[in-house]
Amino acid sequence: MASQHTHEDGHDHRHEGHEHGHGHSHAGHNHLHGVSDQRRIGWAFVIIAVFMLVEVAGGVISGSLALLADAGHMVSDAAALGFSWTAIHYGKRPATEQLSFGYKRLEILAAFVNGCALFVIAAWIVIEAAQRFASPVPVIGKTMLIVAIAGLLANIAAFAVLHGGNRENLNLRGAWLHVLGDMLGSVAAIVAAVVILWTGWTPIDPLLSIFVAVIILKSAWGIVKSSAHILLEGTPEGVNLIDIKTDLESNVPEVENAHHIHAWSITGEQHMVTLHVHPAAGTNAREVVLSVQRRLAVQFNIQHVTVQVEHDECVDEHSTTRQGKDTPRVV
């Protein structure tokens, strides 16, 4: 039986075995997004790195844990932004024989590492806050207030730079959440400074530091969960395998049965699907492959699809044709 690889450029490649094909497209706007996102992250890194030094000095001079907590978060942010910039830069490299999908996954790895780093920062803040409750430390409210306001302005600038980027990019979203957490941390430090100046009640400093830690943990969990899901090649968010099966069998005349469907992501934006198809009578492999590719691109916005066309029983021992046609199996 002849095997056919059908690409969107119209070329066919025939091999022995089952008939299958794959197609993908890389739209120009993805490249433009990458360039724009890298530039935004680069500028945000410069802003955060410069002011990070100011906030560390201000926290040490004033004795404020809230400032040091925010500075610690900014240290993490600077590292995260630098890692993110590097990941996007190397992600542009072409695929190799050893890395057939290129370096795109570096973005996801960067997001995962950044999320894990946030857990460490949050834990340090909570431990330090507990020690401050047990042994209060004098805080210079005026210095703390000035540095905190300056920090808020710096974070707003970095946030504005990142805000116009591609939010579907998990790496950029992670950087954006880092800076958003910093903004809230600066607000907490300003509130703490005002309370200390008006009332002299210094416990507000470690108390609001814990508040910042909770915000950091929330951001960290979202980043780690999303990036780990991609690294584990989980089904992309918003993609339902049963919906794909039902849609193809109901709306693509060339498809009699779709099974053995798998979906995963290379990055948060680039999704892929592989599936086996039994064609309708009288159709050839090329018609089936192109019809399935077009349907998945239009209906599910999935551009990279590999289709294996089977004219007889599926030989894969894990195929759903041996367990019932109605439910696609994920193995």
From TrEMBL:
- What GO molecular function terms would the record report? zinc ion transmembrane transporter activity
Which Gene3D superfamilies does the entry mention? Answer: Cation efflux protein transmembrane domain
* UniProt cross-references to InterPro entries, sorted A to Z: Cation_efflux, Cation_efflux_CTD, Cation_efflux_CTD_sf, Cation_efflux_TM, Cation_efflux_TMD_sf, CDF/SLC30A
Biased composition, Basic and acidic residues: where in the chain? 1-22
Pfam families attached to this UniProt entry: Cation_efflux (PF01545), ZT_dimer (PF16916)
Outline the extent of the Cation efflux protein transmembrane domain.
44-232
Q: Where in the cell is it found?
A: Membrane
Domain Cation efflux protein cytoplasmic, by residue range, is 237-311
What is the superkingdom listed in this entry's lineage? Bacteria
| Record keyword Kinase present | no
Task: Return the GO cellular component terms, semicolon-separated.
Answer: plasma membrane
Q: How does it sit in the membrane?
A: Multi-pass membrane protein
Q: Where are the transmembrane segments?
A: 41-61, 108-127, 139-162, 174-201, 207-224
- Which keywords does UniProt give here? Ion transport, Membrane, Transmembrane, Transmembrane helix, Transport, Zinc, Zinc transport
Q: Where is this region: Disordered?
A: 1-32
Matching SUPFAM superfamilies:
Cation efflux protein cytoplasmic domain-like, Cation efflux protein transmembrane domain-like
Q: Where is the composition biased (Basic residues)?
A: 23-32
| Protein family membership | Belongs to the cation diffusion facilitator (CDF) transporter (TC 2.A.4) family. SLC30A subfamily.
PANTHER family in the cross-refs = CATION EFFLUX PROTEIN/ ZINC TRANSPORTER, RE54080P-RELATED
| Protein name (Swiss-Prot/TrEMBL) | Cation transporter
- Name the source organism: Caballeronia cordobensis
